[in-house]
Structures are given as structure tokens and as C-alpha cells.
Amino acid sequence: QTRSNGDRDTTVLIPKGVDLSKPVEVIVHFHGNGGSAAASTREFKALVAQLPAHGRNAIFVLPNTPADKHDWMSPEKSESLTGLQDEAVAITRRITGRPVMAGSYTVEGFSAGGMPIATAAKTGQLRANHLVLFDSTYGDWGDVAVSHRQPGATVSVFYTEHNRERASRLQ
To answer: CA 37: distance to chain centroid?
Structure first.
């Protein structure tokens, strides 16, 4: 459980082959509505294991959604994306017993997982060198995330047919 994610379950996947003597990429993936950290872990575990073989020296963070899904990463509840990223590095350090230094940050959102990214962006808590929106441009989420991203941060937008118009505006 992580304090910065409302004391909810958070999975930190550390793939074999990650080189902790070098800075690591911290990848946070927010699942969509109806998802969970447990389901996302089952879904992503094999893919995350392949990251080092593809040149990604990374840890993968899967936070669990709150009961009120429309209030994720709420500063009023002491939730914080930057805090979650820092806690994931500390967890990796505790599990491995080795020093760990974050080198870059990727933040991903699938579907309703775009909402906590927008909340983090609105509150100045969006620390991301790369932002990935997987069909998560509903409402103003994508617009807010993109307009509040760090200078120099890259953005990748993937969408289903019904979100083509909004996604094309972001690109």
C-alpha cells in the first residue's frame, strides 16, 4: 500500500535484468474504469519482464483505483503522482536492498486512467518525461494533461475510433 495513492494497493514490478546501478525509468500506468492493480499486474507482468531486453531500464508501477473513481490523485486526500513515483523508487530500494535513482518518468493512462493524469496536471503534480494516453482523452483529460506537461515532455496518443477527433487535436 502506498500513502500517496490513498493507502490503496500498488504493485511495483521490478523486472529481472534491470540495472539498478544506472538511473531507472519509473513507469506509472493508471488502469481504466473497472480495472484493478491486481488485474493489471496479471495483464502486464510478462510484458514488463521484457523491458530490459528492449533497452528499457525501468520499473513499472500499477496503482489501484479508489472507490470514488472520479477523485483519483486528489490532493485533498493527500494523494500525489510525484509522491507515488517517489514511493515506488523507495519500495524498489527496500525490496532490492540497493540504491535506486530515478532517471526519467513515463506516465500512462488507459481509458478512465486519463482522469488521474489530468488531476495531477491541474495540481502541478504531473512529473513525466513521456506521457502516454491510451484511449483516455475523454472530456478535457487529454487537453489538460497535454497543456500542463513538463517542458520537453513527449506525448503519445492512441485511440479507438470514437475518440479520433479529440485525439487528432492533441496530436
So the answer is: 12
